[in-house]
């Protein structure tokens, strides 16, 4: 890929948002800015372990909102506003959780429980991603990720992926859920 500015990459993405080239554009933007967004999240939250997860949230939000990016500012400015807002949301949530702590609350135990829940969530996410790759075709994976991961509406997914079947993205959701249910039952019997 030739060396283009972030803004030029986004302009190319907008020309064909569902092409293979668009995926390369997104990957390139992620590669360019991932480490700096993680560092920014760490600096804003003071939490080195949480920063990569927050950065992932930032990139998901940026990807799903890329169509709203206006060229009146630099992409990095827009991206860091998303990062700042996500980190502030996290700080508010943690502050509210501390304020609501009952009598006899043990903050060390709460942190440990939160860390264990985070590990469980990561393990679950990894397992789901592995199962999706094993049992779903590429279109089913994309539809599930866009709908459940990025919370896109089914009509928007149908249009953006150029699906021509009668039910659009909904048919792929139904098929994917059926396949995943079978895969989860098999996985449970193995565990």
State the distance separating the first and last CA atoms: 44 Å
Low-confidence stretches: none
Strand fraction band? Answer: under 5%
Q: How would you name the CATH homologous superfamily of the largest domain?
A: RNA polymerase sigma factor, region 2, helix turn helix motif
Question: How many domain modules?
Answer: 2
Please state the average pLDDT score: 81
* Largest sheet, strands/sense/barrel: none
Q: Can you count the helices?
A: 8
By oligomeric state, this entry counts as single chain
Stated plainly, the CATH topology of the largest domain is called Rna Polymerase Sigma Factor, Chain: A
Structural class: mainly alpha
Helix and strand pattern: HHHHHHHH
Strand elements, count: 0
Question: What global shape is seen?
Answer: globular
- Taking all Cα atoms into account, the compactness measure Rg is 19 Å
CATH architecture of the largest domain: Orthogonal Bundle
Which percent range fits the helix content? over 70%
CATH class of the largest domain: Mainly Alpha
Can you tag this structure with a few keywords?
mainly alpha; Rna Polymerase Sigma Factor, Chain: A; single chain; globular; Arc Repressor Mutant, subunit A; 2 domains; 8 helices; 191 residues
Task: Note down, in words, how this protein is organized.
- This protein starts with 5 loop residues before the first helix and ends with a helix.
- With about 190 residues, the protein is mainly α.
- It has helices at about 5-15, 20-45, 50-65, 75-100, 105-135, 140-150, 155-160, 170-190.
- The chain folds into 2 domains: about 1-100, RNA polymerase sigma factor, region 2, helix turn helix motif (Rna Polymerase Sigma Factor, Chain: A, Orthogonal Bundle); about 110-190, Arc Repressor Mutant, subunit A (Orthogonal Bundle).
């Amino acid at each position: 890929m030739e060396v283009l500015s972030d803004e030029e990459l986004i302009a190319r993405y907008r020309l064909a948002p569902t092409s293979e080239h668009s995926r390369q554009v997104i990957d390139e933007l992620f590669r360019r800015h991932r480490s700096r967004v993680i560092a920014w999240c760490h600096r804003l939250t003071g939490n080195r372990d949480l920063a990569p997860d927050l950065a992932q949230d930032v990139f998901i939000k940026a990807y799903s909102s890329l169509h709203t990016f206006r060229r009146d500012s630099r992409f990095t400015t827009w991206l860091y506003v998303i990062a700042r807002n996500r980190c502030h949301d996290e700080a508010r949530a943690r502050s509210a959780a501390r304020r609501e702590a009952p009598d006899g609350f043990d903050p060390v135990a709460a942190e440990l429980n939160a860390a264990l829940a985070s590990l469980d969530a990561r393990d679950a996410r990894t397992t789901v991603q592995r199962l999706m790759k094993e049992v779903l075709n590429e279109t089913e994976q994309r539809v599930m990720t866009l709908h459940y991961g990025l919370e896109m509406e089914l009509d928007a997914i149908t249009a953006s992926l150029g699906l021509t079947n009668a039910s659009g993205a909904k048919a792929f959701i139904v098929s994917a859920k059926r396949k995943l249910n079978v895969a989860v039952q098999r996985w449970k019997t193995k565990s």
